[in-house]
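This part of the workshop introduces the protein records we will be handling. Getting from the letters to the tokens is the skill we practise here. The record below serves as our worked example for the rest of this section.

…
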Amino acid sequence: MTPLDQTMTISVLVIDDHELLSSALRAAFAADGRTEVVGTAPSIEAGIEAAARLQPDVILTDRRLPDGDMDERVVDLRASSPTSLIVMMTGWPTQRSCLAALDNGVHGIISKSQPVAQILDTVIRVVAGDLVVPSNLTPVLLARTGRSDASRSNTLSRRELDVLEALARGESTVEAGRKLCISNNTVRNHLARAMLKLGVHDRLAAVSEATRLGLVAPRLPGSGDGDAAHAAGW
């Protein structure tokens, strides 16, 4: 895609369910002068609708929203506003989520832990034609097959990663199967193959190793009673 004319004000749609962040971005972008937040949306569906209506130069979107993960809906977002450049914000930029987003057409990825000024800089760089990813992920993204860790992680299938990510969120195998629309036995089979490939012998070690490799995000404190779920599901 040809970079936008930087002599013009860049219109930005912000898709994020945190009103405080959206307001901070609106104020910072207005103060900068090169950008203008022309709309906000609190969910994926609302964001797709707003993008279709506004056709912004840039869509700045959170990855995890109340109605799903945006890296799985980037294609729909792009279809609603084909000329928009997309920058994804994420609380924990894993190799898997970044690759999924990039494969689906995202132009930049920024951690939400970065200052608002850094988020603005990412938008400006994307408009200038850069592909922006978190610096700590650059070696993995550029040389995935050049390290033993990368070659090991590359053998994991999408379904195996889905299962590991569900377990990392504290879900039981029953809950994971329900969300992935597969049986509990199939979940266990995927997990067993993942453990074999990762060289570990139990599900906790598999989740720990997948987290270390950057394949899944670690479970955040207060994200749910995962121990009880595991007890019920195993």
